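W.,

You were right to be curious about this one. When I first looked at the sequence I had no strong expectations either way, so I just let the prediction run and decided to look at it fresh. Below is the sequence, 340 residues in total, followed by the output.
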Amino acid sequence: MPEYRKDIILDEWVIIATERAKRPENFKEQIIKVDNKALNVCPFDRGNESMTPPESLRIDNRGNEVGKDSPWQVRVVPNKFPALVPNAQPFSQQYGPYMVMDGFGLHEVVVQSPEHITNISELSRWQVELIISVYIRRLIAIKKDNRIESVIIMLNQGKEAGASLEHSHSQIFALPLTPPNLMNEISRTRNYFNQNHRCAMCDIINFETKEDKRVVYENKEFVMLQPYASRNPFETWIVPKRHDSNFENISAQEANSFAQCLKVLVDFFYIDLNNPPFNYYIHTGTLDGTKDNSHYHWHLELEPKLSIKAGFEIATGIDICITTPEYTADYMKAGDFFKA
């Protein structure tokens, strides 16, 4: 029988349509051959550094920041076609009944390898660790600008997920405001805390690890799970066990454990599900020190593009997930990817 399930992070309902459920193995994407280099010259490849705007950060294979003429493993550059620009002014003004503001902010690209790779799964674990360290460094640096209120760290894997260049890369957006999704998470989890005097995500971790129906993988610092109120098949969260509102507060050991979880997860999607397109996002608290986000719990969400929203979802705002998170969790744990 179909079920309504409530997401206690967003305080929203979803529908788990078990009557329409597909078996997890039916979500495997057909393998599509991809040209390793659709362009004759890729601006992210080693040797083509002059094709990008001047970099914000260059890291070598030991994780050290190096100069522009040194060999590199990860580069951070401003987006050549940015959605936001740093030379605008973050002041809103009235325009008739509307509000308008110049497009102030940062829009950066994290080039994840000097080699022309097309999937994050092609990176080794130590390379993923370097990328995580770059995210942290950039967030800490951006935080010093008091005009920035929030930072979004994300990856689009595959054209259907929004990737515009095939060379594996992620993006960092710094905004002078709090976007609606993050604002909603912070507001809803604050309500949960006020009512229960506990963190909603901490309660989820405690319940899920005890029940062990939707937990896929666990190490000392993190839990990986299929959320109870999943909106999409194989939607996966990576959640730190230690409560903290902001990703940039992560310790070195936690960063390595986080990279371990992320590497295992992307390998599963690449190999077992035949490389479907997906997005991942790091949900982290706002940077405004005047606002209390102590109730919030940062985490990563990965959402594969394995189903399409139809009229009901668009009209109501209630997502229908066509398989159960318990089913997908069992499928994931049955393989070798998530063995301790």
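Here's what jumped out at me. The longest strand covers residues 150-157. And, maybe more interesting for your project: Residues 34 and 99 are 44 Å apart (CA to CA).

Coffee later to discuss?

I.
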